[in-house]
Design goal:
This protein has 47 residues and is mainly alpha-helical. It has helices at 2-8, 14-26, 31-42. It starts with a helix and ends in a 5-residue tail after the last helix.
Length: 47
Amino acid sequence: MYIASVLMVDEENFMERSYLEELARQLNLDPALKVELEAQVRQPMNM
């Protein structure tokens, strides 16, 4: 759920970023895991 949301939101939009922060909190994601998931999603795909 969190990864799908990261793919959809505009990280520069305050409301969308707030949504991600609240979702991570509700899912009880460890902050380090949250950072790692976001980094993986935002990496350019090497094909």
